Fold Glycosyl transferase family 1.
Amino acid sequence: ILLVHDVFPENLAAAKILKKDHFLFKILKSLFDRIYASADEVIVIGKDMKELVHQKTHQSNNITVVQNWIDSSDIGTEPKTNNRILQELNWLDSETTIFQFFGNIGRVQGVENILHAIQKMKYAHLAKFIFIGDGAYVARLKEQIQSLGSQNILYYGSLDQKEKTTGLNACDVALITLADGMLGLGVPSKSYFSMAADKPLLAIMDSESEVADMINTHHIGWVVPPNNEEALAKQLDEIVLAKHCYAFNSSREVLNEFYSEKVAMSKILNIIRKFT
């Protein structure tokens, strides 16, 4: 049984680490395709990933989707007015909407697209953006924020694991990204953490991605295509003008019902029983 969280070597190409026409990529692709095809059962974490693995193995009857899960009891919810970070920043103005990017700030997160979209917003003065986390793109992110010179865009830094609840609750809307070209290659687990904090999700990714499908199926947020600054700016403006009236389902309740450890373990046990 093979559990796939990232699809190699295609994810290396998407991250611009290795070009698809490079001889090493071709060698790795041949190797990993054989590994995936040799498994009796393949578990993937998204429907889009299942389609990609199917293309690599030319098999579909032994590929099962078991979405990621987290323990929601590890993350609490709290009112914005009680949030230490927002109090520290004096970001408690009820007229503004706070958007948050939380987690790994890497090459394939599409952070630059967010910054460009902010510049195209009509109502950017009614929005604030906070980036919390660490990663390969942080240095560049800090440079870009400084060049924009806006008091409404902030890189806060990274947080200790014990402060996850505080960090995840420091917003109104969680930004979840998957850069163009990443469809099927990975599922951003940060979406489940923001759901545990009961935040609506703004997914900036392909509409056929696992997270986008989850958002549309359970009505817990919005989906905007990647690398479309105008569409993202328009959606950000619409969210700001809604003034916190979103009428979505509780993302935390959706998480507990459909993406809990109990649900995932039941699926995995059913797979194991096939071989016992």
Q: What stands out?
A: The longest strand covers residues 97-104. The beta strands are 2-4, 42-44, 63-65, 97-104, 127-134, 153-157, 173-177, 201-204, 221-224. The CA atoms of residues 107 and 274 lie 39 Å apart. DSSP finds twelve helices and nine strands in the chain.
